[in-house]
Amino acid sequence: MRCTVIIPAAGSGTRFGSALPKQFVSLLGVPILVRTLQAIEQTSAVQNIVLAASPDFHSFIADLAQEYGITKIAAIIEGGKERQDSIFNALQTSICADSNVVLVHDAVRPFITSDFVESIIEAAWEHGAVVPGLVPKETIKECTEEGLVVATHERSRLRAIQTPQGFRREVLVSAYHKARQHGFLGTDDASVVECAGFPVHVVAGREENIKITTPLDFRWAEFLLR
Ligand code: C5P
Prior knowledge:
Blueprint: E1 3-8, E2 26-27, E3 30-31, H1 32-41, E4 48-53, H2 58-68, E5 73-78, H3 83-91, H4 94-97, E6 101-104, H5 114-127, E7 129-134, E8 141-143, E9 149-152, E10 160-161, E11 165-168, H6 169-182, H7 189-195, E12 201-204, H8 215-225
Parallel strand pairs: 1-4, 1-6, 4-5, 7-12
Antiparallel strand pairs: 2-3, 6-11, 7-10, 7-11, 8-9
This protein binds cytidine-5'-monophosphate (C5P).
């Protein structure tokens, strides 16, 4: 089985509040993106990484890969306007075309382990589409833009969804083409696959698999590494 991991790293990270996009910010001496790449590098079931990034950072990423001994980056491609456009571009590469399973993993989730990534690959091959999720700790309410509560959803049926999200390649490619035809824009890859009508399975996520989005997340990440 051949597996490629797509890493969308083309975001500008406006919620993080630093001049440098957050994926390149150093976390206890090592850039967040490098920590994520190292985790995937160590996962033997993954053969290739396709990175989507702004062209301004392509040579910087290539230099980082060399410095840290990351050998699995098969292509660094141009990101798109939205995260979904970045993934669409990555799916056009011959590297993805040669893969049975494609995983998509946020550049800013460095706390993945090889056993977790491998469990996602296996579940993706078995089910076609799989996402890791956690039951939210908070009660989740749906609100209007004006701040009025519309509904309170039953917590045990809700999941906060993480990456890596895993797919049989043909499922993901077909879903992304349908989304482009219909102008659907989702916040994760599974929503694109759901919209195309494919079933998506949920497996248990990992609590430490945080997405470094805000300055406080960054402090949590430092804490987890100490
Ligand atoms: O914006 P958000 O936090 O959802 O971004 C998740 C991931 O998608 C980040 O790794 C970010 O760099 C990436 N991204 C991208 N292309 C965009 C926007 C975000 O690759 N146009």
